[in-house]
Amino acid sequence: MTVWDILLIIVSCLLITIIVLQESKEDATSAFTGEKSELFANRKERGIEVWISWITTGLSVAFFVLAIVAQFFVDRI
Predict the structure, then answer these.
(1) Are 18 and 52 in contact (CB under 8 A)?
(2) Residue 13 within any structural domain of the chain
């Protein structure tokens, strides 16, 4: 296991954690009924939601870049 693999695992775990922490913008009942809820359609992110959004974006980009970099360091058979 290389350093790139370890970094990829760490970023993956952090990305999963931060996604779980995000607040859902949809009501769970609309998933079963099929209707589209417009209650929070024009709601702006505030406070910690903005930070979680930025962290999610940064971790997503880091995951994508690390996945590509780690692929180049895989031992070829």
Answers:
(1) yes
(2) yes
For residue 9, what are its two tokens?
A: 């695992």
Whether the predicted model's global pTM rises above the 0.85 cut: no
Count of domains in the chain?
A: 1
- Using only C-alpha atoms, the chain has a radius of gyration, in whole angstroms, of 17
Whole domain around residue 62: which residue ranges? 1-19+45-77
CA distance 24 to 35: 16
Whether residue 40 lies inside any domain: the answer is: no
- Dmax (CA) of the chain: 55
Residues 10-46: pLDDT tens digits?
A: 999 999 999 998 876 665 565 566 566 555 556 666 7
On whether the CB atoms of residues 28 and 76 are closer than 8 A, the answer is: no
* pLDDT tens digits along 53-70: 899 999 999 999 999 988
